[in-house]
Design brief:
Chain lengths: ~400, ~180
Amino acid sequence: MGKIKVLTGNYSAAEAAALCHPDLIAAYPITPQSSVVEYLAGLVHDGVIDANLVQVESEHSAMSVVQGAAAGGGRVFTATSAQGLALMYEPYFRMSTLRFPMVMALATREMTSPETVWSGQQDAMSVREAGWIQMFCDSNQEIVDMIIQSYMLAEHPEVLLPVNVCYDGFYSSHLTEGVDLPLQEEVDRFLPPPSFHHAVLDPDHPFALDPLTPGPILMKYRKSHLDAMEKALEVIDEVDKKFGDTFGRYYGGAVSQYRTEDADVVIVTIGGMTGTGMDAVDQAREEGIKAGLLKLRFTRPFPAEKIRDALKDKKAFAVIDRSVSFGWSQGPMHMEVKAALADADSRYCHFSAIGGLGGADISIEMMMETIRNLDAHKNEPGERETQWYMVD
Amino acid sequence: MKEIRLHGRGGQGVVKASQIVVKAAVAGKKYGQFIPFFGVERKGSPVFGYLRISDEPIRRKMQVYEPDILMILDDSLVSLPSTYAGLKEGGTVIINSVKTPEELKVPSCAGKVAVVDATGISEELLGRNIPNTAMLGAFAQISGLVDKDVLFQEVEASFGAANREAAQKAYGQAAGLKE
């Protein structure tokens, strides 16, 4: 049992990062993530944590600085959102392909234009082919727990990949609620110090890091990176179990399910819309609809097998995306869930729902419309028109 | 679960006040949740806040469309259609004002209306117009959702003794306005 504190999502991320003994933190402020690093800067200043805090002039520099520190064997942390992530892209891609473990909080935000600073998951979805592990949180408790878990996952010797812990901008980053914050000694027992050595700079054994690499060798690196992603699917479950055994909170690994056992229709959610979706499922059940919810906790690696299992005996599903896939007239996770099922059109009534872009709300009523639509057509396999959660 | 919507202007302390309510709720072994909704982040622009208090864990993370309670920190906001929108039948309205409920055009569905001069109290005790802590005193009296002593304690811990006094004074004033 930890200490109950009332925290915003951003402060939850900062408190959790502090509990993991980061050696170095570098970040550049961008709404809605800014208070993560402001809070950590305070903890460093007050001597609560013994970390190097590097002030940088941009997100490109922030990721480059933490990359250098990771190459020195350090445990590092940063946070960003949207345009900040876009500016960071070049070293961001190199972080994963150098196989450096780290954890980055991503307070997800819509991408401009039109000019916006509000919520959305377009930033995270836009970098899903950059080699990072990506997971999405629903509650502030989950933010705390997943930052701690993610260091264990990232530094696992058969994984060695950076992890994005994503949570919805404003709807989670600025949401205040009670959190059971683990005690330092409990975290120290759970999470050993970093011990990755595959590319650590050692003055006694100098070598060139990341020299120009011919295609045939690069292909081996890529294959190995993809294999590590596959391995990560197992490690995610192992870490979830180990964390649950220590702290009493289990999340189910790469996906979690709510009232799906006997469900006919399932909504698939990502991140902070999940709690709202559970309330919608309960309401649907009261209306006599056998509804359930499948939460995609991890999107990279993509838990295809778990999705197939969860939807095996179901009749209909909709994936609710807080982002779009340009050129597909639907959300990116709907495309990927379909790809995981392969025979979706012949077996299920299914469609994509898109909502919550640029800070727009995703309400219970919007999700009820999705659930009622699925229930009305559950015996007619095939893809239906994308539903847009438009607000008048 | 009780759903509360706050309407104020940037700089009036909507966010801090709501966070104190969540702290008081959690200290009282209940669940609390607050989501702020900013427009442009600058002083004076309208700010919304969505506050929930419940005996059960709060799962939904969405805006409040049908509030049980409306807290209005600036009475010029009553002219916006969004301010009274969706108020539940028999719901509660707490307004920082010296005007009458008729002048404030409080909708007839309201069950309880409290008008408190939180600006006057804050100007008297704090020397400036930061009405949030006085509004918390009125909220504790009218809603009965959080323990007043725990709330006063949280106000003092966050903002000091003068703000506690502001909350206590508004608590006393709002008492006479109930129903």
